[in-house]
Amino acid sequence: MNRKFTLRRSIALTALAAAVSLTGCQKDELMENQFAEPQAAFSSQNGQAIEGQYIVVFKNGNLSASNNQGLKVSKVEAAKMRERVMSASNVDSREISQVYEGVVNGFAARLSQEQVSEIRKNPEVAYVEQDRIIALAPSWKTTANGNGKGSGDGSTETNGGKGNGKNKTTEPAPTEPAPSDSTTTEPVPTEPTPADTTTTEPAPTTPAPAYTTITPLAGETLPWNIERVGFGDGTGKTVWVIDSGIDTDHADLNVDVARSFSFIYGNPSIEDGFGHGTSVSGVIAAKNNGSGMIGVAANATIIALRVFDDAGAGTVSRAISAVNHVSNNGKPGDVVNMSLGSGISSTLDNAVQNAAAKGILFAIAAGNSAVDCSGTSPARVNATGVYTISAMDSYSRLWSSSNFGAGVDFAAPGVNVTATSKNGSFGSGHYGTSLAAPHVAGILALRGEVLSQGFVTEDKDSTPDPIASVK
Predict the structure, then answer these.
(1) Considering only CA atoms, which of 302, 356, 365 is closest in space to residue 333?
(2) Which of 186, 408, 415, 448 has the fewest CB atoms within 10 Å, measured from its CB?
(3) Which PANTHER family does this entry report, sorted A to Z (predicted)?
């Protein structure tokens, strides 16, 4: 069950409001090419280290697969450890931006080089990692309101398969039959070989979990991207969206405001000022209510975990807090969508891996840099229940800007995708693996696993990605 240790490089921008801020110049630069070739949802600053900001992980909070000793600390014990480490290195509590208590224990803070050196020597500290930017490019917008229909319906190949969220091993059936061997001269035997009764019985197969089918109500828009992967009734299913928040008043979304949370220091609002989280949520779960569009797991409950501000700026340290939160408050079978990523972060990877070990399922964007995703987190997590998703167009071709590699488990629509928007409407014109991942999040909510229908063409690695499907 090996899955290429991978990661991805996707989203980017700036740090915590109290720690790192974007200059107007930087924002203008990101806006410059807004209407050129679609930029998907990632900024060129993604993955940059944040000067003076660090993530500190305690030894008994480092529950990675290689160090999974079942060690857990209570919140009280974690707080005591944090106080000891901070006191020993003269860290002022006002410099703390995130507190970790869960699958990862530790904190994120503004630290001097002297403090970092002291903390690294502390016997209770596993390691110190520099915080990084994760950010969304400000070109996130719809190009049209209305039915949002894309052109083309994609391939109808039905090379079935199931994914386990760990590796991509299924080869597509050859398009032409293999040539016969003209040197073979043995005649066909006149007597059939007796059947081996010990092997003729087909191996038992486990049927895919059932899901509730649904018929779109009159007035409902069924976009090409939703039709391609399939859809069903997600009523009663829960999907945690780690993103820019959600438009809680959107008539097409079921948002659990009570369980939603913002990890932006000093800003408790979960409202989506940027638009990305609202679009992701619609692909996952837009209601079958006779208006707007329908999502893959229509009517499912969305919980907003906000890590990006109104400018699309976030940090790895916030994303770790959000995964910790899901691990502490979610339940097996819940789904998490992470349409984000940065440079390599062992802490973020470990948080995802340990949450997945509890039976929580993850759909993660592969990234939009047209590179092998093995250099970005958290896509490189090698764990059951963690799915890394590339983007394809309506003709089943891998999108030219999609990341690729052995770490990718499935492809899903990510070109001219129709999604909900933060102004209460919906529209087409969305691009990127940020949109591909929520299709799989919806499938996971419906079935708890991912099936496939065909394979992408023009893949950049040696193994074409299977196309995610609900059936």
Answers:
(1) 356
(2) 186
(3) PEPTIDASE S8, SERIN ENDOPEPTIDASE
Q: Tokens standing for 466?
A: 């299977």
Catalytic residue among 276, 325, 430, 439: 276
**Taking each helix axis from N to C terminus, what angle separates 75-88 and 113-121, rounded to the nearest 10 degrees?**
120
Q: Compute how many other C-beta atoms are within 10 angstroms of the C-beta atom of residue 64.
A: 16
Structure tokens at 389: 């998703």
Tell me if 341 sits within 8 A of 370, measured CB to CB.
Answer: no
Burial class (CB in 10 A: 0-12, 13-18, 19+), 236: exposed
Active site residue 439: no
Closest CA to 85 of 120, 50, 114, 60: 120
E strand or H helix that includes residue 116: helix 113-121
| H-helix segments, 272-406 | 276-285, 316-329, 346-356
Range with lowest mean pLDDT among 141-145, 166-170, 202-206, 349-353: 141-145
How far is the C-alpha of 121 from the C-alpha of 141, rounded, in Å?
A: 47
Q: How far apart are CA 199 and CA 246, in angstroms?
A: 54
What is the Cα–Cα distance from 414 to 437, expressed in whole angstroms?
9
DSSP 66: G
Please report how many Cα atoms fall inside a 13 Å half-sphere around the Cα of residue 83, on the Cβ side: 6
Catalytic: which of 89, 131, 155, 243? 243
Q: Are 108 and 263 in contact (CB under 8 A)?
A: no
| Euclidean distance between CA atoms 336 and 343, whole angstroms | 20
Q: Can you tell me the distance from the alpha carbon of 224 to that of 394, in angstroms, rounded to the nearest whole number?
A: 7
SS3 399: coil
Q: Residue 78: its pLDDT value, please?
A: 85
Could you tell me the two tokens for 438? Answer: 């929520």
309 is catalytic: no
Residues in the chain: 471
Work out the pLDDT band at 206, boundaries 50, 70, 90: low
Q: Which amino acid is at 205?
A: T
Angle between helices 276-285 and 433-447 (to 10 degrees): 40
Task: Calculate ∠ Cα 433-242-303, nearest 5°.
Answer: 120
pLDDT single digits (tens) 45-76: 778 899 999 999 999 744 333 333 334 546 78
Which amino acid is residue 93, in one-letter code?
A: S
Q: Does the model's pTM come out above 0.85?
A: no
**pLDDT for 188 beyond 60:** no
Give catalytic status of residue 276 as yes or no: yes
Strand 254-255 with 96-100, pairing: unpaired
pLDDT(7) > 60 = no
200 CB contacts (<8 Å, ≥6 apart)? none
Query: 3-class SS at 446?
Result: helix
Q: Which residue has the tokens 């089943």?
A: 396
